[in-house]
């Protein structure tokens, strides 16, 4: 059956008839499930991934969220986790063994890279693609792991091309799809095996919950269930699953609004002479980027800018003037947030990574673009009183 994204996010799976008419499904806040007979109990335990036995397994509240996310991504099955990193690590723990190699494509979230550095201790190698993915594949490459868009420079890569190359070589593909959400990008329809999310960002949407998810085929998610989830133990609590289900109900609406607000902010930023570069996929059209329209149907509200005159003092002066934008990690919530990777002593390190010293990242929230733009204007004014 073909459901629209709006239907999946709102009513799909709610089953009021099974819940005394309750329009909002109950939260199964329980650690375990009991049985009438010992035979029924032992039978359920034989195949725990299909039965309610223990919440570090399958729980009906979390399962509803998983059904919705699998459908949204057009995948067969989903498993949710206690965090995005729980979801990401489950993929590596389940699919890789000693002697395997992971090829990273595009800029990758720092802690994901750190995890692979740690896995070197278990003889699992990784390297970064220089752009020509096919020539970067090694004989022992088992997984191509992608972020597109990335979340600092928002760079994008051609997902259909990568999945075609991977299939030719019999290599798994996984993508961190947190930036776009399944509302704007469905990597499984572009040939990817696994789509991963930090639910902490847009999908939760209210900055009150931490969670993660992996969507893929029955076969892969079943493998992930045992080794990446049950034995690793990164469980999403039923209360948090229910908060994320509530977040999902407005996800399509919120994403449209984040996009509209962000595009208005970008329009304003293009008028500022202090800005060297605006990093957001909406800015890259045609030519080498002609694949974007095929793989994305919209843009979220996470962008960064590069100031013409960078350095810690300038960046700090800009950020300290903001009041609508709160200073903090994470992104994708209702509130506008500002952050920068620059610290007092890491300018050289940033330059080596291809990141300028005037980089500032904004998560454009839902406060209204006029308010947000007025806030940014205060930041730009502050730049003129600081010597670099
Ligand atoms: C792109 C991306 N992926 C994954 C994660 C990790 O998610 P979590 O913080 O929910 O573990 C983050 C967190 O900031 C992120 O930005």
Question: What's the short story on this structure?
Answer:
The chain has 388 residues and is an alpha/beta fold. It has helices at 5-9, 38-46, 60-73, 84-95, 110-119, 133-136, 159-169, 181-184, 218-230, 238-249, 251-269, 292-295, 312-320, 347-352, 369-383, and strands spanning 77-81, 101-105, 125-128, 141-147, 172-176, 194-198, 212-216, 275-279, 302-307, 326-327, 337-339, 359-363. Pyridoxal-5'-phosphate binds at residues 83-85, 109, 151, 176, 178, 198, 200, 210, 212, 330.
Describe the structure.
It is a single chain. This protein is of the alpha/beta class and 388 residues long. It has two domains: 5-249, Aspartate Aminotransferase, domain 2 (3-Layer(aba) Sandwich); 251-383, Aspartate Aminotransferase, domain 1 (Alpha-Beta Complex). It contains 15 helices and twelve strands. The protein has helices at 5-9, 38-46, 60-73, 84-95, 110-119, 133-136, 159-169, 181-184, 218-230, 238-249, 251-269, 292-295, 312-320, 347-352, 369-383, and strands spanning 77-81, 101-105, 125-128, 141-147, 172-176, 194-198, 212-216, 275-279, 302-307, 326-327, 337-339, 359-363. It has a seven-stranded mixed sheet with strand order 1-7-6-5-4-2-3, with helices on both faces. Strand 2 (101-105), helix 5 (110-119) and strand 3 form a beta-alpha-beta unit. Helix 4 packs parallel to helix 5, helix 4 crosses helix 9 (218-230) and helix 13 packs across helix 15 (369-383). The longest helix is centred in the last third of the chain and has 19 residues, at 251-269. The protein is globular and about 75 Å long. The chain starts with a helix and ends in a 5-residue tail after the last helix. The model has no long low-confidence stretch (mean pLDDT 96).
